[in-house]
From TrEMBL:
Pfam families: DUF433 (PF04255)
Record-given protein name: DUF433 domain-containing protein
InterPro entries: DUF433 (IPR007367), Homeodomain-like_sf (IPR009057), WH-like_DNA-bd_sf (IPR036388)
Superkingdom field: Bacteria
Gene3D superfamilies the UniProt entry points to: Winged helix-like DNA-binding domain superfamily/Winged helix DNA-binding domain
């Protein structure tokens, strides 16, 4: 899976934050729900416009960001 098929960023939408294509749902919002303990089924019920693949793309996107971090000491 290529997360770029599901996630994009446009400076004219949601202040340029990455969103799930075709929605105004930010990657951040989905990650926060997952961090709060929401599972795949819960997220899909909350946001019927999402697919399991789009939620997995959010996780893949986050993993790519972490993998490209130079140094954990630079984190805020």
């Amino acid at each position: 899976m290529n997360y770029r098929d599901y996630i994009s960023a446009d400076p004219r939408m949601m202040m340029g934050k990455p969103v799930i294509n075709g929605t105004r749902l930010t990657v951040e919002a989905i990650l926060r729900k997952l961090a709060e303990g929401a599972g795949m089924e819960t997220i899909l019920n909350m946001y019927p416009c999402l697919t399991p693949e789009s939620v997995r793309a959010v996780l893949q996107y986050a993993a790519e960001l972490v993998a490209n971090q130079e140094d954990l000491e630079d984190l805020p």
